[in-house]
Amino acid sequence: MGVFKDESEVYRYVGRIFQVSMEDPELGPKLRKVGSVLKLNQTDPESTIVIDFGEGVVQLGENDANKVTSPIDAELDMEADVAHRFWLGKINVALAMAKGQIRNKGKVSAVMKIVPHTKPLFATYEKILRDAGREDLVDAVK
What is the spatial distance between Cα 78 and Cα 100, in angstroms, rounded to a whole number? Predict the structure, then answer.
């Protein structure tokens, strides 16, 4: 069993970091310029997050009212724990791809354009967890 008990926790924490990034007054415009559309398929628990960086839309799950309609540039498959560890700054995307922890379908360039913009959000992700009283999720990967 992974660190998240169900898909709603993946959306509440991992999904939230994408929403925060798009709302950020400095980072949001930079991400919109990148313009890629990424689909993240997580397992343990099963969950799907689609981000249209160009439009600033984050779709949490298949039934979310925020529907991404643009074509997907890249689809990443990983365990939800891998996404969690990435946002805590513990995973290098290129290395995780090489090790098969993250599997990519589509344009690797679409993924790699976004990665450099994520580092400032590591502390934000940790704050989201701590503000929710989920220090256990922060401490799970130390």
Answer: 9
Cα within 13 Å of Cα(54), Cβ side: 11
Could you tell me the two tokens for 110? 């679409």
SS3 state at 94: helix
**Closest C-alpha to 118, from 12, 14, 48:** 14
List pLDDT tens digits, range 87-136.
999 999 989 999 999 999 999 899 889 989 899 899 999 999 999 999 99
CA proximity to 122, closest of 14, 44, 4? 14
45 prior amide bond cis, ω within 30: yes
Question: Is 29:20 a contact under the CB 8 Å cutoff?
Answer: no
- Classified as helix, coil or strand, 69 is coil
**Alpha-carbon torsion (135, 56, 60, 107), positive or negative:** negative
Output the pTM of the full model: 0.93
Using DSSP, state whether 9 is helix, strand or coil.
helix
